[in-house]
Amino acid sequence: MHAINYESPNTVADAVKLLAAHGEQARPLCGGTDLIIQLRAGVRRPSYVVDVKNIQEMRRIEFSMQQGLRLGAAVPCIEIYENSDMRKYYPGLTEAAHLIGSLQIQSRASVGGNLCNGSPAADTTPALIALGAKCRVIGPGGERIVAVEDFCTAPGRTVLQPGELLVEFHIPAPARNSSDAYLRFIPRNEMDIAVVGVGAAVTLDPSDDRISAARIGLGAVGPTPIFAREAAQALVGKRISDETIERAAQLAIAATSPIDDMRGTAEFRRHVTGVLTRRVLAKAIERARAAQTSR
Question: For 280-294, what is each residue's pLDDT tens digit?
Fold first, then answer.
């Protein structure tokens, strides 16, 4: 590794000032589980690393049924898994965070870092898309809000401009009769990159067992994570049935553009997308039915 200047600001304003001053030569450090590997491999060669873990605004988990969830971009995944509100109200996102590497990795890695790395196979991104999460981004030009599904622009690339920092996620509070779920397929049991990942969130109309709202996020089946909009819309207003879920699964497959690589062929990824979409919708629906009486 080449010589790097290390900075550890305590406020978002100071972090943005440092990032803006050094432009492309500066990289924020959240958990570092990806960045440090990239530095050692020479994939990235910044002159400045700006450690944001000491910024309290980026380390908070604040939830209320009135305001929803404010999740700091630097919150370690293990803190998400151990948070009772996260497990109760956002189980899909919580289980996605708990799938990122080993417990040691989860104590460092963050959902914000997972998104900013720009990987199409990131576990938490489809779960965030399913929840309709918004990114609060602050830079030298001020503040802006970006939908998670619009954040990644290509493998390893995002909408962040030099000097900008992802500070936190805003996620709506779940309705009483709603829930989410996340599933992935990997070639072995632990600590591998998803071949396919699917997140889904549904809201039910308990009066006639219809789905009143839905969102589906897909990972590792395109150059960026995918919001399967048509698949989700196909569920809205429909009674829950095998046929309804199968229609959504087929539309989810149609939304993909996978590649062949060492972890799976494009044909296999399309097949698994359908399988996981059916399973994750069934899981989210089961949880939503349970939530009708527990919230």
Answer: 999 999 999 998 766
